[in-house]
């Protein structure tokens, strides 16, 4: 889990304006990725979900993820390392992605080992220097006339370092702070044994506080009200109370305090003052560093400087004037400025202000907030005074910071919500069913061409904008849902635009509040689907035109077939027949005149070929257009086709027609004839069967046609994906008739092709439900024992 480091990534482009990418982490998971020009300062994540102010200003707009395929490079405080492989190398991208995941999940930077080691040493040295400076600050805050330090910053420095760093770095902090402790206390003459016991107590206090705080508060640290309470209770009371048991004997041994109890009390109070006053400031610096100070606006810097100056001046005046009992009330004069610092600058600014108060009080001839008999009692009174103002002010600062974070999150969520709704044309509405008031997103108002204030927030005003043809359907759907008959409300409808045009919307919603079984509130969304509807209408129009053209093509095809068949039968066939007669007549004449036998044989062969040509032309004419179908109806046409096909092919075709085929419209009969014709040809080509059956059942409203074979069968789903023109032609003819097609086949057991078409309104259109026909192929097969035997 990320603690004190940011997961920062750079995406490299072919252009100079490369961009950087920040991964925002919350509870160990990436929750946001922001992108901004690399010329700006990089954004820094110092705690889960907390982004440095410099990054907020550098990247005010959310740009989303980088383009796919661009290599990612981890950066470690300096220039980014470009990928060694060419951009787009999959293995390199996978490696970088794994490093990013490791950083997100475990807080391990995806860097070489030597930068990590260098960073650890540098950080530990800074902690050691801060510990050393804090010790001298503690020496400087010793109350006049006593050996008691009002506050002891070194322990707070060590606590901040441990709390914001992984445990594997603690050893380095221990080494540098031990050296700093020895140097600082050695210079004031503290015996070696005493200073070692002191440091042991300080280290134990910091470790105990860190372990408890990590269990009680979020990791990484976030300054909230709960965290502030835990910090004061654990780091200010519990940990010092435990550690002082170890360190208090050293104070007595050195002669600083007379008893163990006094030593224990003094040490606990010093840490209790330091914790609320300085710990939030030190933790913030340890987490984020000082980089954010560069991005602070000048006006805010000037405001903080004015507060600090006012604190210096006001506290100095208070310390000078409150020496006498008559002016003791002036000790509360700095409170307004402290409140200002807490509210405007948070816990860090408050820590600086409290630090100023302590130093000014101790630099003046001030005996504490109350007249006491001894300097030690005055020191105790000052410590109690500082604790009583620091604790509530820090809690107030935590509340303010928590509120600001919540406001930023709400603002960010609202911004993203607005971006998403604007991009998707989706708006939220909230309908109060008791008052008739309705809140509607401005996205919907603007989609209809109105300004935000032009449409009243009443259901009547918005209902008036629904297209009159859709209004009844919309209100009926809403009422059905309000009555509890449907789980959700969903309806597509039109609304009137300000310019007179029409916009399509998809409304979805649900009752969000019921009282006594009655719906009182309903919320939902409206999505602008005008473009989708336009595309659907264009697609439907295109499909309609295709169907129309297909129907015209088939009609033209049949007309051309009829024309060619008539030409073959009436013209060419007659001419060929006349030619055959002429050849026969010529042969007879030559035979009577004693022509050579060779010439007579050639004439016989020529006559035979002409006769075959006439037969072929007759078959072609019948195939193009069945005269039996045209003059005798569907049954005669099918029987003629079956008989002729059985003679030409090695497939025995039987036909059974049940009912009066005279009721079948001519276009329907022709289409069914072509369907059977194409189906039988498919059986002959692909099934390997020796027998095929055609059953026609003519009812009152529909006609059913079944073509069955006992061949090899096939995979219906597979054939649909790669269907040839035969099946496609059959499907199109059935669809143009408004009928239904069912193909069932079992490999090795044959195929059934069942067609049902209506006898009324036969024409192009979608498949419709014709109801159960009065007579079906099942009835016919049942009466014939499953085997058609002829026309009935």
Summarize the structure.
The protein has 792 residues and is an alpha+beta fold.
Structure description:
The protein is of the alpha+beta class and 792 residues long. It has five domains: 7-111, no CATH class; 117-292 and 373-403, Arp2/3 complex 21 kDa subunit ARPC3, CATH 1.10.1760; 425-527, Beta-Lactamase (2-Layer Sandwich); 534-620; 632-783, Histidine kinase-like ATPase, C-terminal domain (Heat Shock Protein 90, 2-Layer Sandwich). The chain is built from 22 helices and 16 strands. The chain has helices at 53-58, 90-106, 113-140, 153-163, 170-187, 192-216, 225-253, 260-288, 298-321, 335-363, 375-424, 442-447, 459-463, 468-482, 530-592, 597-624, 627-632, 634-648, 666-687, 716-721, 725-736, 777-783; strands at 7-11, 19-26, 29-37, 45-47, 50-51, 72-74, 426-432, 438-440, 489-496, 502-515, 518-528, 652-658, 691-698, 702-709, 740-746, 750-758. A hairpin with a 5-residue loop joins strand 9 and strand 10. The two termini are 84 Å apart.
Question: Keywords, please?
Answer:
792 residues; alpha+beta; Arp2/3 complex 21 kDa subunit ARPC3; Beta-Lactamase; 5-stranded antiparallel sheet; 5-stranded mixed sheet; 22 helices; elongated; disordered C terminus
CATH C-level label of the largest domain? Mainly Alpha
Strand arrangement within the widest β-sheet reads: 8-7-11-10-9
Overall geometry comes to elongated
Would you identify the regions where 5 or more consecutive residues have pLDDT less than 50?
1-93, 103-117, 787-792
The appropriate CATH architecture of the largest domain is: Orthogonal Bundle
* Percent in strands: 5-15%
Secondary-structure content class: alpha+beta
